[in-house]
Amino acid sequence: MPHAVSAEGGSEPPSPFLSPIRIFLNSRGDAALTDRVFAGLMLLSALSIFAIVIFILRQLIGSSQLSLHAFGWHFFFRSAWDPVSGDFGALPFIYGTVVSSLLALIIAVPLAVGTAVFITEMCPRFLRQPLSFLTELLAAIPSVVYGLWAIFVLLPLLRDRVNPVLIKTLGWTGFFSGYNLGNGMLAAGVILAIMILPLISSITREVMTAVPSNQREAALALGATRWEMIRVGVLRNARIGIVGGVILGLGRALGETMAVAMVIGNTPHISKSLLDSGYSMASVIANEFAEASDDMYRSALIEIGLALFIVTILVNGLARLLVWAVTRGAPARAH
Amino acid sequence: MASTAPRPYQNEDRRRGLRIFQSHFVTGLAVLATVLVVAPLVAIFGYLLFKGASSLTWAFFTQIPKPVGEVGGGMGNAILGSGIILGIGSVIGVPIGIAAGIYLAEFGRGTKLANAVRFTADVLNGVPSIVVGMSVYALIVMREKHFSAWSGGVALGIMMIPTITRTTEEMLLLVPHPIREAALGLGLPNWRSVLSITLPTASAGIITGCMLAFARVAGETAPLIFTAFGNAFWSHRLDQPIAALPLQIYIYAISPYDDWHRLAWAGALVLIVLIVISVALVRYAAGRAVLKGAG
Fold it and tell me: In angstroms, rounded to a whole number, what is the distance separating the alpha carbons of residues A18 and A2?
């Protein structure tokens, strides 16, 4: 509903919801009817967004009944994955998803925040637009292209250059041991990090630009150096939003499918070593769902999808609330 | 008192030097981070051009994949298939997305329902695409007992809706109120005012939003694996499995054959060029005339 048109100098205050013009228009027969039909159609489309969420939830719950009843909650704590004998558990996939996503966050967060700080606070004006365009391009590259690049460029690089160094220096921790094939948990973490970087960086930039500039000016006026100004004036004010952006990145990493499926190695076992191969929730669905012939197998995969759906809904919801808490009431978004 | 004064100042000076050094150090770190972020981008585009361009031939666009061992072949059927699936997706996603955006900006502004819809749209944006593919599989493919082009289109359409809704809303919010008031003042009914005045005013921004959503789903592979499924031959039938560019890239990338790897790179180059063009157009349009005749 358009806002009330305030009658200039009118003695009677207009109704808070309907302008006099609107009341007049509403009273006109068919216009009132078509208006109502139009508004109804728009409302219906808006409600379809709820419908989609409910539809996904219903389909997933409905089609995973078999596995839900057969395994119950234990499904998520068992590591059996044997399609032949119909014995299923999701633990290796949950482990793979969580570890690769956390690894991605560890790599991506400092880089993303650093880039955002550089672009919004430090870089010369003429570089600002091109740099934010470049990071946006990074977000536009499809998952499968990242996967392709990872197979032919990243994996050889890790195998020949990075992993030997890691094994030599950090092999004693047990996190970097075993066969060095290039693919595995570490490769998945690195490619995920590259993929979620632009998202975290753009949210961080958004919340940092939402910090009023008098915070910066105040810090500078007190004699702060540039870094102190950024730390005290900007980052401290934007921290909740940045955490929101990081959680948003986590949500993206949890659900990322193709690139992970192409580099993680696709073996359902749990290993302490990050160089070892693993499997993730999304990639097991991508690899095995189309071939899952018997009902229990398919139902188990759908239950993994259901878990993924619920987790990403919760993670994204939390992140959005945090970002909103910071940017609400801020002036127009600036990228 | 006076004799003790210089010492603190000396300390101050040393501390200030340290602080300035710290500030420069952090600036250096930020530059390093930016370089590290841009590096993979350059590496990916470099490799795509380097590996993809040499395999881009006319045959790539006109032929279907050849069996392993035979030289040549192309992805013509996959490009056609992607076009068809994306067409279906847009037919579903664009009208619903724009209408939902109109509701948020024009009818529900500030209401609890609108806030809930906006929040749900944002959350839906983050739902993994493979989950959307799965539920469409359960709805359509399981029922029909075979993979089909239109189920793939439905999956992509669902994924387009939240993005388009949010950008439409944001663009409509930029339209100044006097424009709506002028339309209503001339006696236009509200629906006419929205469709012929407000919406065209924001059209440039809304079109860019649609293109952004289009570019996003154009590269989606995961939801197509078990809806469109892929097809080694020409197919334009909506009720049959159909090939799609990202799907074909995936299949070729994980295959052990060098010939197929070359085609995968060429396919990725084509896909990325399409996406980059639309993103660049979006930037251009968004930076320029978001609003026609108002601003």
Answer: 8
Cβ–Cβ of A286/B31 closer than 8 Å? Answer: no
Interface of B with A in 86-145 (CB under 8 A): 95-97, 99-100, 102-104, 106-109, 113-114, 116-117, 119-132, 134-135, 137-139, 142
Angle between helical axes of B258-287 and A125-140 (0-180°, round to 10): 130
> How far is residue A155's CA from residue B57's CA, in Å, rounded to a whole number?
28
Identity of the residue in A143, A197, A320 whose CB atom sits nearest the CB atom of B219: A143
Angle, helices B112-125 vs A29-63, to 10°: value is 40
Please list, in sequence order, all residues whose beta carbon lies within 8 angstroms of the beta carbon of residue A320, skipping any fewer than 6 positions away. A244, A248, B119, B122, B123
Contact state of A262 with B181 under an 8 Å Cβ cutoff: no
Question: Cα Rg for chain B, rounded, in angstroms?
Answer: 26
B236: closest CA among B87, B21, B39, B56? B87
Query: What are the Cα distances from residue B112, in Å, to B65, B119, B293?
Result: 53, 10, 32
Identity of residue B259: D
Q: Residue B160's CB: how many other CB atoms inside 10 A?
A: 24
Beta bridge partners of A82: A87
**Residue in B closest to A6 by C-alpha:** B181
Shortest CA distance to A75 belongs to which of A306, A310, A311? Answer: A306
CB-facing half-sphere around the CA of A210: CA atoms within 13 A = 23
Q: Using alpha carbons, select from B205, B287, B165 the residue that is nearest to residue A132.
A: B287
Query: Residues of A with CB below 8 A from B158's CB?
Result: 52
Using a 10 angstrom Cβ sphere, with 0-12 exposed, 13-18 middle and 19 or more buried, the burial of residue B203 is middle
- Judged by CB atoms closer than 8 Å, whether chains meet at B34 and A22 is answered as no
Q: What CA–CA distance (Å, rounded) separates B274 from B281?
A: 11
Q: Could you tell me if A334 lies within 8 Å of chain B, comparing CB atoms?
A: no
Q: Which positions in chain A touch B223 (Cβ < 8 Å)?
A: none
Residues facing B229 on adjacent strands = B242
Neighbours of A136 (CB within 10 A): 17
A139 vs A206: CA distance, rounded Å: 15
- Give helix A91-117 / helix A236-255 axis angle, nearest 10°: 140
Write out chain A's pLDDT in tens, 335 residues: 444 444 444 444 555 667 776 676 666 656 678 888 999 999 999 999 999 999 999 999 999 999 999 998 889 998 889 888 888 999 999 999 999 999 999 999 999 999 999 999 888 888 888 888 888 788 889 999 999 999 999 999 999 988 888 888 888 888 888 778 888 999 999 999 999 999 999 899 988 988 888 989 999 999 899 999 999 989 988 888 899 999 999 999 999 999 999 999 998 888 888 888 999 999 999 999 988 888 899 999 999 999 999 999 999 999 988 888 777 654 434 33
Which tokens go with A18? Answer: 């309907």
Residue B227: alpha-carbon gap to chain centroid? 20
Sort out which chain A residues have CB atoms less than 8 A from B245's CB and list them. Answer: none
Distance CA A255, CA B246 (A): 18
The pTM of this model reads: 0.87
